[in-house]
Amino acid sequence: MPKLTTPSYRLLAAFRYEMRKFLAFSEQAARDAGIEPQQHQLLLALRGLPEGVLPTIGAVAERLCVQHHTAVASVDKLEARALLTRQRALGDRRQVLLRLTPEGNALLERLSTLHRNQLSNVGPAMVAALQSLIGKGEAKRVTVRASRPGLAKQKKAAKKRPARSPRLGS
């Protein structure tokens, strides 16, 4: 790895600046919609869970890189606002699954549309900053892979109990 130089620091700073501008936009958009940025992130994480990952507090906590109890506090607030619900799984009543309500889906759709529009405006500057930082040749080869947090843990747990449907109970 080459030694960091003043231009290297400038490239890192430029990329960080572009990311921070987008994050500042995102935080303000959430507040303008009446929720906290972390609550918006939780709604998005829940709606965007990779295929095969059950919508549990643990899965959402992992996607947000927060402790379980922190996710619980956000879920409590969102549930109080009727933006999501908790329901027991049919096959394993100990397991609690999360589901967006129609109101939660509508709010998330409005925020996601705003974010997508903002990214169409600032995305090119973010990509240019990243390409400058890592080198244009490398940037073309970067692919985004959906991680599947908790999937190995879920598969291991599934081997210990009979197969069940992930359908929600009432």
Overview of this structure, please?
64% of the residues lie in helices and 6% in strands. With 170 residues, it is mainly α. Strands 1-2 form a two-stranded antiparallel sheet. Helix 1 runs antiparallel to helix 5. The termini are far apart.
From the spread of the alpha carbons, the general shape counts as: elongated
The stretches of 5 or more residues where confidence is low (pLDDT under 50) are 137-152, 154-170
- The helix fraction, in percent, is 55-70%
Alpha-beta classification: mainly alpha
Strand content: 5-15%
Strand tally:
2
Key words describing this protein structure:
elongated; 6% strand; disordered C terminus; mainly alpha
Put the structure in a nutshell.
The chain is mostly helical and 170 residues long. It is 64% helix and 6% strand.
What's the helix and strand layout?
Blueprint: H1 6-32, H2 37-47, H3 57-64, H4 68-80, E1 84-88, E2 96-100, H5 102-134, H6 136-141, H7 151-160
Antiparallel strand pairs: 1-2
Helix pairs in contact: 1-2, 1-5, 2-3, 2-5, 3-4
